[in-house]
Amino acid sequence: MATPNYMTRISFLDGQILHDFHLNIMQSNIAEAIKLKTTTERYDMLLLISPYNYYFAEPFVDTTNRDASSTAELDTLSFSINQDSWITPMMQLPEDASEIYLLCNKQENPDYGATVSFFYRTSSTGSWIPIEPDTQTPLGTTTRFIQLKATCNYTGTVRPILYDFCLMWK
User: pLDDT of the chain along its 170 residues, tens only?
Assistant: First the structure.
């Protein structure tokens, strides 16, 4: 006796028919909502014990906070990037900032050349300045504008993974 494929179609008592592609969309929406909620809550908890103001978090669930010059492709299964550069749009802070702090959730393997580098600039034509995560970064002058760039570097087959990042300022 052949086993029926229950994932092809599910009929409910009210007559609604649910196909496998509906389940995939629902699973994707649930996973995206969980990623957004956990990322925001993690950075909110860190904000409670820090002297900084939270400004921006990128959970990599969609491309709404991605500049057109970005070359990184979003991995929609793991909600991450693992190659090229992700650039945020130029962001305007609510008030002038003299210091920024970058937090991130990443997986690197420096022994194989797989690292993630971060950069910032305060004008759309300015040069990119390196920034280290989990380090206080004083800005040369106070500014209201900032743009971030995350670059996944790799030399072989092992790639780094960047799951999310957050910018805090004061």
Answer: 454 554 444 455 555 555 555 567 778 888 899 999 999 999 999 888 889 988 899 999 999 999 999 999 999 888 999 999 999 999 999 999 999 999 999 999 999 999 999 999 999 999 999 999 999 999 989 999 999 999 999 998 999 999 999 999 99
Q: Which domain holds residue 69?
A: 15-169
| Structural domain includes residue 134 | yes
Other Cβ atoms within 10 Å of 76 Cβ, number: 13
Domain count, the chain: 1
